[in-house]
Amino acid sequence: MERHRWLWAVGTALGLQLTIMPSTIAHISFLRQSPWLDTLDAALSQAFLNDAMMAQALNSEQRQTNTVTIDRTDLDAPHQLTIATSANLSGEIVINGEAIAPLTAGTTTLNIAPYLTANRTTTIVVTGTYAPRNAAIRLTFEGPSIAISQQASGVGRLDYRLNLDVN
């Protein structure tokens, strides 16, 4: 009985016209055991499951992380972090927990060298949202003897972490 109430509620929410059979004819066996109820129940359950999975995928994000070791003798050299995109981007660059720069469409370049300290790890977090979702965002980090490039696209959310170990 609960399944039929659920189907009625779902049908009502979807704007379907459903007819509830009077209790006087509910005892007729072919109406109670009709396979169309099971088929409709399975189809609606699968449709809602697919919608839920799609919503989760559209709202998901994936963190990309890199860890790099930098030689302390290179601390005076420039270490450039560049974020480039043609997408409508809104976000920020955070270094060691402090918001350093906003992100917008176009290219943002930041010299990380002033934030580096010998025998410490500097953590850079780049987060934001962008549209359209299929746009690409390229993140590059370049310094003496090092070049890293990452690309994000497809989910509309950016979450990148770069750990710089200075030894």
Secondary-structure blueprint:
Blueprint: H1 2-13, H2 29-32, H3 35-58, E1 64-70, E2 80-85, E3 88-95, E4 98-103, E5 106-111, E6 121-131, E7 136-143, E8 146-153, E9 157-166
Helix pairs in contact: 1-3
Structure description:
It contains 3 helices and 9 strands. It has 167 residues and is α+β, with helices and mostly antiparallel strands. It has 2 domains: 2-58, no CATH class; 64-166. The strands form 2 sheets. The chain has a 5-stranded mixed beta sheet, with no helix packed on it.
Brief rundown of the structure:
17% of the residues are buried. The chain contains three helices and nine strands; from the N terminus they run αααβββββββββ.
Derived from helix and strand composition plus strand pairing, the structural class reads alpha+beta
Shape: elongated
Please state how the strands of the largest beta sheet are arranged side by side.
1-9-6-3-4
> Termini separation (Å)?
69 Å
Poorly predicted spans: 12-31
Number of domains: 2
SSE run: HHHEEEEEEEEE
Strand count: 9
- Average pLDDT taken over every residue: 77
Gyration radius, in Å? 27 Å
Helix content: 10-25%
Largest sheet: 5 strands, mixed
Query: How many separate helices?
Result: 3
